[in-house]
Amino acid sequence: xxxxxxxxxxxxxxxxxxxxxxxxxxxxxxxxxxxxxxxxxxxxxxxxxxxxxxxxxxxxxxxxxxxxxxxxxxxxxxxxxxxxxxxxxxxxxxxxxxxxxxxxxxxxxxxxxxxxxxxxxxxxxxxxxxxxxxxxxxxxxxxxxxxxxxxxxxxxxxxxxxxxxxxxxxxxxxxxxxxxxxxxxxxxxxxxx
Length: 193
Prior knowledge:
Blueprint: H1 9-23, H2 30-37, H3 41-48, H4 51-75, H5 80-97, H6 105-112, H7 118-145, H8 154-172, H9 178-189
Helix pairs in contact: 1-2, 1-4, 4-5, 4-7, 5-9, 6-7, 7-8, 8-9
């Protein structure tokens, strides 16, 4: 008879995701994980595999949630320019209101692990490409409605916005002067003409 798990796997995965997001892969110990998840090591291994497999599961969950959240934020506004303005300004506001800048879990992984691990290089690159598609769809909507100039190259602009998003997210981890970031966001948004 198969023994039922005595813990909520989704909640445990959420707890692991938050911990990895806060501390990174290398700085998170198995003891940190079991304490945060409220489970013993055998349960962790049985449910998720080793630390790397747990990290991958947590990252995949984050990517799914993050992509869905960005798509929703950009689609819930009739104005494409306003949608991007709100998206970037809310991102900055969120980072500066907290005492600890966690950044983006996927971007943190891109910086920490992608240069050394092909699996995480591919996962983070796929997320970048997916965000580019979401941005491109939004830009095309703006071009179709006449809000954005028809001469815009939606694909190239979307890719540029993704690069800007990644750069901005990494930059904010060092807490530069708010005006530096706000001016950069204004320049990024000026690309949407």
